[in-house]
Amino acid sequence: MLEVKGLKKVYRSGSREVEALRDLTFTVDNGDLVCLVGPSGCGKTTLLRCISGLLEPTSGDVKVNGKAVAGPPPGMAVVFQEYGRSLFPWMSVRDNVELPLKQKKVSKPRRAELVEEALDAVGLTGTETAYPWQLSGGMQQRVAIARAVAYEPETLLMDEPFAAVDAQTRADLEDLVRKLWQRLKVTVLFVTHDIDEAVYLGRRVVMLSSSPTVVQDELVIDLPAERDQLHTRADPRFIELRTRVYEQIQLAKKAAAK
Ligand SMILES: Nc1ncnc2c1ncn2[C@@H]1O[C@H](COP(=O)(O)OP(=O)(O)OP(=O)(O)O)[C@@H](O)[C@H]1O
Q1: What is the pTM of this model?
Q2: Which residues neighbour 74 within 8 Å (Cβ) at sequence distance 6 or greater?
Q3: Domain named ABC transporter: which ranges (predicted)?
């Protein structure tokens, strides 16, 4: 289980202080898919960086399976928004996916297996020797997802991973994430500012307020587990849920403007 308790982050530079996160508390059960949604600048990236041990919180704590996070936790992988910057352009697709496995000291034959399985899972078999810059944006993001999946993480953090791809590719990648989540039984925390994406993907949606950020509300997404872009998004329950999330986010924005 991932536990975030009383998390606060204040950035300080000289005499300037920015309180990015005020007091965040929520949990993600093992094997759950939780979407975090909040307005732009509410501190979503700051939160994920604290969870992944890349940034030290000012106070509060993050625990994974009861253990406090201090530095990047071993069973965690992160997929960032900017695929262009997260892949090494001088390395082939295979080498990019394999690199974290080398760092994890996985044996060579097992690495080959994991890379092959992960590329197959994201529909990129045959691109092993290509370089990232020879692929489309959507394909590059698939490579980044394959790299995270090959690592066999217990927890997968995704920070607005589809913000930079076109709408059709985005829909395909959303379905890919749900498929991988169901197949691999991994715990997923998915951050997005897109309300429809959060409701479509999540089993739960945690709504954040504007900065200084607190948890505004939480919602269980009681849509069927089998989802598809056409029918799920037209389901009256989907529309009800997205309206609830939208209203909460609007309330958060109004409260912040006062
Ligand atoms: N290194 C930093 N130093 C000072 N302030 C920072 C730093 N990083 C972020 N901030 C501030 O903290 C707040 C939250 O930023 P953050 O990037 O976490 O938000 P976000 O929700 O991910 O934004 P967006 O949705 O626009 O990507 C913002 O006010 C931002 O200006």
Answers
A1: 0.90
A2: none
A3: 2-235
Kindly state whether residue 221 falls inside one of the protein's structural domains. Answer: yes
Whether residue 52 is contained in a domain is answered as: yes
Atom of ligand 1 at shortest range from CA of 41: 23
Judged against a pLDDT cut of 90, whether residue 219 lies above it is answered with yes
Atom 11 in ligand 1: which residue has the minimum CA distance?
Answer: 20
Taking the C-alpha atoms of residue 48 and residue 179, their distance in angstroms, rounded to an integer, is 23
Pairing mode of beta strands 187-192, 33-37: parallel
Q: What CATH number does residue 245 fall under?
A: 3.40.50.300
pLDDT number for residue 66? 86
- Overall domain count for the chain: 1
pLDDT score for 121: 86
For ligand 1, the distance from its centroid to the CA atom of residue 136, given in whole angstroms, is 28
Predicted-complex ipTM score = 0.94
Ligand 1 within 6 A of CB of 45: yes
Domain-embedded: residue 253: yes
Tell me if 114 is assigned to some domain: no
Q: What's at 189, amino acid-wise?
A: L
Residues ≥6 apart with Cβ < 8 Å to 231: none
Quote the domain boundaries for residue 5.
1-75+155-162+185-258
Nearest to 25 by CA among 51, 49, 45: 51
